[in-house]
Structures are given as C-alpha cells and as structure tokens.
UniProtKB/TrEMBL annotation:
PROSITE patterns for the chain: NUDIX
Catalytic activity annotation: ADP-D-ribose + H2O = D-ribose 5-phosphate + AMP + 2 H(+)
Organism: Chloroceryle aenea
EC number: 3.6.1.13
Pfam families to which the protein is assigned, alphabetical: NUDIX
Family affiliation: Belongs to the Nudix hydrolase family. NudF subfamily.
Name this polypeptide is given: ADP-ribose pyrophosphatase, mitochondrial
Lineage, opening ranks: Eukaryota, Metazoa, Chordata, Craniata, Vertebrata
Subunit record text: Monomer. Interacts with GLOD4.
InterPro entries per UniProt: NUDIX_hydrolase-like_dom_sf, NUDIX_hydrolase_dom, NUDT9
The protein's role, per its UniProt record: Hydrolyzes ADP-ribose (ADPR) to AMP and ribose 5'-phosphate.
Amino acid sequence: RNPAGRTGLSGRGLLGRWGPNHAADPVVTRWKRDGSGNKVAHPVTGKNILQFIAIKRKDCGEWAIPGGMVDPGEKISATLKREFQEEALNSLQKSPEEKAELEKQLDKLFSQEHFVVYRGYVDDPRNTDNAWMETEAVNYHDETGETMDNLPLEAGDDAGVVKWVDITEKLQLYASHSYFLKLVTEKRGAHWSEDPGPGCLE
C-alpha cells in the first residue's frame, strides 16, 4: 500500500506494476556562460547560474528532467544513461555509427563526479493506493561545459522539445522536479531564489 497514505485511487492506474514503480532522473547540468565563456552570475544574488537539460513532455506539455522507468533487471546507472540518450539525444532514430559516437561522449559525462540528489518515494500524478512512483535523481555536472558542447541535443521518444534551461525557483516543472533542482543548486552553491528569505528585515 502507498507509504504516503491514501490517494483515493485504487488499482495500478497508469503505472506498469503493483507497489513501487522505479524511475531514474538524470539531472545534467553546466554553468551558464556568456559569449566569452565566462560564468554568468545572477544580478541579485551574485551566485553563478546553473543550467540543466530540460525536455518538454509530449503527454502533458510540462518541462521536466529527461528521465524514465527502470527496465526489469536494469541497473539504475544504465537507465539514467539510456533515458537521457533516448529523450535528449533522440538515440532511437540514430544510425549505429552515430550511436557509438554519442555513447563515447556520454561516457565522459557519466563517468565524471556525480551525486545522488534524491532517492525514494515521489509525489506523482499517476500514484494510486496500490502503485506508486519511486525515483533516483542523479546530477551529472559538466564543469567546463566542453563535453556537452559536442552533443547535439535533439528531442526523441516522449519528448517534444529539448533545451538548456536556466535553473531558478520560478521554473514550473513536472511532479517533484523543481525540488530536485533546488537540491542541486544548494549542493553546487548556485543561484536559486532572489528572495533572501526571513531574517533580513531592515
């Protein structure tokens, strides 16, 4: 039964299996840079702005992290890479040669230092009392920006559009994706909010 309580929906709903349905969300980031290659800081907070690769979902039109479901027996690390290739690089439509080239570039990115942003239950519109989503969100950060420069972004599979998007709290994203991005900005000391929060009254 759903660990977060009752949803008012019974059965599996739109989800593939009873109980937890496992997903993987690769958060691929780089620093926003100007024409000269310098990092761009936010004018209010002075913190550098992070960008992430976002897809616009075909099903609901919302911007999201290019993740997807873990196949039975698949390692999470494999899912993260596969989903990113399918949704952000349109790998399903590529020739074997093009695929091999993408694979080589991606290995560089996915073998760099990364961290698990979040692991566990997620609030998802598809959750029911008997089936729910759990995800592992992992941040792969291209510090110099050089690895990702060579990758041709192209929407594929469930994605309508794919592009680099500046991370701020103003983003309206699918499900819990904004929360994952906030955790990434905290970890990397990047810009998130213009509002200084309580405790700064004159």
